[in-house]
Amino acid sequence: MNSQWIDIKSPDGAYGAYLSLPPAGKGPGIVLFEEIFGVNRHIRAVADQYALDGFVVLAPDVFWRAGARLEFGYEGEDRERAVANMKSLDPKKAAEDIKTTVAASRARPEVAGKVAALGYCMGGRLAYIAAATAGVDAAVSFYGGAIHDQLERVPSIKCPMQFHYGEKDTGIPLEAVEKVKAAFKGKNAEFHIYAAGHGFNCWDRSAYHAPSAALAHGRSLEFLVKTLY
Questions:
Q1: d(CA 18, CA 202)
Q2: Among the four 39, 58, 87, 101, which has the fewest Cβ within 10 Å?
Q3: What share of the chain is helix, strand, coil (3-state, %, to 5)?
């Protein structure tokens, strides 16, 4: 893969982002937002996956203020540390970083045309925030937590959005999904529900569900092609 870590300048200092380029060298942009576990092996592989599909992918280090390139495991004490780290994230600073990263993506010479936001878990919520505040051209949210508690942002969203949820997700019950769906009534938004739990796209997690992950990836690609090209 043609991938590397780069630095993005912000008013508070520089932070890292994992950049993965498509075989053609150019393409539409995707800003990829991590789960609470960092820009780890899995997120970097997802960036490479979408790069191979033809996109210029930029995955920012969301937790950089707490420490550069922090990575956490999915179980036990590591998971508890990841949750605590997420809770310490300053929403205003995170929103500023979202805008800065989207602008950095648009400024890349490899980015030809439009830019989307895409994220998983916490990153799914950040992709939603990017749609509301950062002027992206499309957004894809995989099991984004707490979106149903931030529905006041929906009127600000003008771009197409796509949502992926697991029907067995105990953290995001279907009632919460229905609230999001109702808030997006009349807007350009897709909702897909899978016979899976939270984190079904991550092949490094016990929750991984290959059929759902493959179907969701295909739907995401179709959506991104339609909205970015």
A1: 18
A2: 87
A3: 40, 25, 35
CB neighbours of residue 76 within 10 Å: 8
Active-site pick, 48, 97, 137, 169? 169
pLDDT at position 1, please?
Answer: 83
Q: Which of 61, 97, 121, 209 is labelled catalytic?
A: 121
Given a contact cutoff of 8 angstroms between Cβ atoms, the answer to whether 209 and 183 are in contact is no
pLDDT in tens, 216-228: 999 999 999 999 9
Structural domains for the chain: 2-228 (3.40.50.1820)
Q: Which of 42, 148, 164, 198 is catalytic?
A: 198
In angstroms, what is the C-alpha Rg of the chain? 16
Burial 19-38 (b: 16+ CB within 10 A, else e): bbbbeeebbbbbbbbbbbbb
Q: Is 198 a catalytic residue?
A: yes
Residue 148 is a catalytic residue: no
- 202 catalytic? Reply is no
- Compute the distance between CA of residue 194 and CA of residue 51 in angstroms, rounded to an integer: 25
* Closest CA relative to residue 2, chosen from 43, 42, 54, 37: 54
Rounded to whole angstroms, how far apart are CA atoms 141 and 59?
15
pLDDT in tens, 66-75: 999 999 999 9
85-114: average pLDDT: 96
